[in-house]
């Protein structure tokens, strides 16, 4: 990447930095929100997205149990911090950043591999979710998110004009 | 910067080689207390099994779990990124898993700590300069390494040990 930066203008460089999609998975592994912001990933139907969410939920749990790192002694007076599951996954076409909230809701952000600060973006999505979904009195927990203000806020943050 | 383990799976999804550089001494103790807390029946049966056997069982279970993870992630990546997309690596808060697949569907998987960069070239080197040279070209090794026969020979083990030490 550092080689190409010298030859490309900032606007050309921006072309590579794309947020493809955001998925939100509830603590039971069910898909509650999916939205595509830019083309780049294969088109999947809603059933495939549901399967994908369930699969990832399982892999996330397994990745915690195969932790080979020696346990670090916790700070005195504290409990051992819980092992985290997959935080980021890379393939040759995209990068998946996963953020799990303390209540077990997982935010999956699909970006291009060149996109920087994906962990900041996914945390911002969590904030938007907290503001517009959790504070919505008509939203029932663990159910699919159909909140118009949330859609608009996410679009304003992630969709490229 | 450290390497925790290396796994090689053949095209029949069988684990043909495992190498660990750190041993988890604390783990059996944690597991037995967790079992005791859950139910008394399971803890008494778990205590009958010696710690060494339990550790070996845990290790073979780990290999199966890792293969399952890789298999699912690989399929997920192909589904989302297209048929020419390849799964490269994933990272958790504690470790990093690197993946390399040869054209013959031999899968090399390495688990390291978080302070290492891209290990794909290292895995390629292990396959090209060690596996092909010492295992594939070995006249004593069978073509299919069912249950790992012929993989863990002296030359391969020694070469791997030296190679890992030199890259770290």
UniProtKB/TrEMBL annotation, chain A:
GO terms for cellular component: endoplasmic reticulum; Golgi apparatus; TRAPP complex. Belongs to the TRAPP small subunits family. TRAPPC4 subfamily. SMART domains: Sybindin. Part of the multisubunit transport protein particle (TRAPP) complex. It is found in: Endoplasmic reticulum; Golgi apparatus, cis-Golgi network; Golgi apparatus. This is Trafficking protein particle complex subunit. Residues 67-87 are annotated as: Disordered. InterPro entries: Longin-like_dom_sf, TRAPPC. The keyword Transmembrane helix applies. Its main location: endoplasmic reticulum. CDD domains: TRAPPC4_synbindin. Keywords: Endoplasmic reticulum, ER-Golgi transport, Golgi apparatus, Membrane, Transmembrane, Transmembrane helix, Transport. The chain crosses the membrane at residues 14-33. One of its GO terms (biological process) is endoplasmic reticulum to Golgi vesicle-mediated transport.
UniProtKB/TrEMBL annotation, chain B:
It is found in: Endoplasmic reticulum; Golgi apparatus, cis-Golgi network. Coiled coil: none annotated. GO terms for cellular component: endoplasmic reticulum; Golgi apparatus; TRAPP complex. InterPro entries: Longin-like_dom_sf, TRAPPC. Its main location: endoplasmic reticulum. It comes from the Eukaryota. It holds the Pfam family Sybindin. The keyword Metal-binding does not apply. GO terms for biological process: endoplasmic reticulum to Golgi vesicle-mediated transport. Keywords: Endoplasmic reticulum, ER-Golgi transport, Golgi apparatus, Transport. Part of the multisubunit transport protein particle (TRAPP) complex. Belongs to the TRAPP small subunits family. BET5 subfamily. This is Trafficking protein particle complex subunit. It comes from Oleoguttula mirabilis.
């Amino acid at each position: 990447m550092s080689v190409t930066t010298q030859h490309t203008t900032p606007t050309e460089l921006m072309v590579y930095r794309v947020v493809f999609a955001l998925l939100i998975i509830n603590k039971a592994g069910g898909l509650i929100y999916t939205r595509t912001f830019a083309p780049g990933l294969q088109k999947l139907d809603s059933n495939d997205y549901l399967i994908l969410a369930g699969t990832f939920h399982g892999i996330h749990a397994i990745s915690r149990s195969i932790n080979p790192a020696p346990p670090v002694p916790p700070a005195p007076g504290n409990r051992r911090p819980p092992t985290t599951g997959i935080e980021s996954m890379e393939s040759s076409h995209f990068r998946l950043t996963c953020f799990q909230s303390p209540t077990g809701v997982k935010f999956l952000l699909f970006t291009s591999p060149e996109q920087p600060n994906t962990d900041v973006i996914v945390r911002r999505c969590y904030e938007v979710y907290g503001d517009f979904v959790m504070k919505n009195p008509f939203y029932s927990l663990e159910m699919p998110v159909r909140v118009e203000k949330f859609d608009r806020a996410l679009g304003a943050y992630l969709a490229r004009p | 910067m450290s390497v925790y383990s290396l796994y090689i799976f053949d095209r029949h999804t069988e684990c043909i080689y495992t190498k660990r550089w750190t041993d988890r001494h604390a783990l059996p103790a944690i597991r037995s207390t967790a079992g005791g807390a859950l139910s008394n029946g399971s803890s008494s049966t778990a205590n009958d099994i010696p710690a060494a056997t339990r550790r070996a069982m845990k290790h073979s279970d780990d290999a199966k779990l890792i293969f399952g993870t890789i298999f699912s992630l690989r399929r997920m990546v192909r589904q989302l990124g297209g048929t020419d997309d390849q799964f490269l690596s994933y990272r958790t808060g504690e470790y990093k898993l690197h993946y390399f697949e040869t054209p013959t569907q031999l899968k090399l998987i390495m688990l390291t700590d978080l302070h290492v960069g891209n290990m794909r070239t290292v895995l390629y080197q292990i396959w090209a300069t060690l596996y092909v040279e010492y295992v594939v070209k070995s006249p004593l090794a069978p073509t299919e390494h069912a249950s790992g026969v012929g993989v863990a020979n002296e030359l391969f083990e020694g070469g791997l040990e030296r190679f890992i030490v030199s890259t770290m």
